[in-house]
């Protein structure tokens, strides 16, 4: 129960900073904010302060920053719709952007405290095929004649090598040992058709500057991965069952809580990237659709028909809620 409560709090925190991004830029842009809410459904707490109602709602599955005239027509001069296109664009962009910035910050914190995997061997797994040929502290510099720059290159090179070679064929591994270059032949073991040498990396400390660069790089790598997931979903290579909703996310967060602080922080940053990325997609009812219409107006100086935009947003919202409901039901079934 404790881990579930912590997970819900962390999930709502990501929603909070996302909506706060919209909120603070809207305020700075002179756009009227009617309500700032965390959670959905019936209110369990609310407080009016100035023109804005601050609310905490019962269902911990989202939140919103309700701006005057954002999704309907309004005659208020400070409505979202009457603001200049660039202010609307920046107000909507701020939500996803703050999620991505937060993720980069957390990734930086994690890598600065844990270090990164070096090319040097820190240990061997059980029944390691490399244990008899290699030694701890050996620095792997090449596999199958291909240079190894990072520890992650090892898996990629091996996978590529065994796409064109039989599984019983040995692969050459070049290592640096006490200043000498040594080449060994190793026959990897296979788990789920994935070739493994059975080694674990020796961690390497990083400077703060390097950690910042790696934190930002991790965000872009995850965005690339999410694009690949979307592609695989549309092409049928990835099953719908691979999707998770709020229940699935909270469940996984609960599992990560029990694995230690750095694990949960890394997963929190991963979810923050997801939240930022998917809200940037030009899908009706998500931030990306409003970014698209604002950008269109900035370029063409023409406004999209408000009534049409409202109808498309309503349809998109219904479809989005339906998808969340279906995925949530699936996640609840998987709990038992």
Automatic annotation (TrEMBL):
Annotated localization: Membrane
Regions crossing the membrane: 6-25, 89-112, 259-281, 312-333
Coiled coil: none
GO biological process: proteolysis
Membrane topology reported for the UniProt record: Multi-pass membrane protein
Gene Ontology MF terms in the entry: metalloendopeptidase activity
The protein's required cofactors: Zn(2+)
Key words, A-Z: Hydrolase, Membrane, Metalloprotease, Protease, Transmembrane, Transmembrane helix, Zinc
Peptidase M50 domain boundaries: 8-323
Any single Gene Ontology cellular-component annotation: membrane
InterPro entries linked: PDZ_sf, Pept_M50_Zn, Peptidase_M50
Membership in a protein family: Belongs to the peptidase M50B family.
Protein name as it appears in the record: Site-2 protease family protein
Natural source organism: Anaerococcus porci
């Amino acid at each position: 129960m404790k881990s579930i409560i912590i997970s819900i709090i962390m999930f709502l925190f990501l929603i909070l900073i996302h909506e706060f991004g919209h909120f603070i830029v809207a305020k700075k842009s002179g756009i009227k904010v009617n309500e700032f809410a965390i959670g959905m459904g019936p209110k369990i707490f609310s407080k009016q302060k100035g023109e804005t109602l601050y609310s905490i709602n019962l269902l911990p599955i989202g939140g919103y920053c309700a701006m005057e005239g954002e999704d309907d027509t309004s005659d208020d001069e400070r409505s979202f719709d009457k603001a200049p296109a660039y202010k609307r664009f920046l107000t909507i962009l701020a939500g996803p952007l703050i999620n991505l910035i937060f993720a980069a910050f957390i990734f930086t914190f994690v890598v600065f405290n844990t270090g990164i995997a070096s090319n040097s061997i820190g240990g061997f797994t059980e029944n390691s095929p490399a244990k008899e040929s290699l030694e701890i502290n050996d620095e792997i510099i090449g596999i199958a004649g291909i240079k190894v720059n990072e520890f992650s290159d090892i898996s990629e090179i091996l996978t590529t090598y065994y796409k064109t070679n039989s599984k019983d064929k040995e692969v050459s591994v070049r290592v640096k040992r006490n200043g000498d270059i040594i080449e060994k032949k190793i026959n990897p073991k296979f788990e789920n058709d994935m070739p493994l040498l059975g080694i674990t990396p020796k961690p390497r400390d990083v400077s703060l500057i390097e950690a910042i660069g790696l934190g930002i790089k991790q965000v872009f790598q995850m965005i690339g991965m999410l694009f690949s997931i979307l592609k695989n979903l549309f092409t049928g290579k990835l099953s719908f069952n691979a999707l998770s909703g709020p229940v699935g996310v909270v469940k996984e967060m609960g599992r990560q809580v029990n694995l230690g602080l750095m694990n949960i922080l890394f997963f929190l940053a991963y979810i923050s990237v997801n939240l930022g990325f998917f809200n940037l997609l030009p899908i009706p009812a998500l931030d990306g659709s409003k970014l698209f219409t604002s950008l269109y107006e900035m370029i063409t100086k023409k406004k999209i028909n408000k009534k049409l935009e409202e109808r498309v947003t309503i349809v998109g919202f219904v479809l989005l809620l339906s998808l969340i409901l279906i995925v949530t039901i699936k996640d609840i079934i998987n709990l038992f």
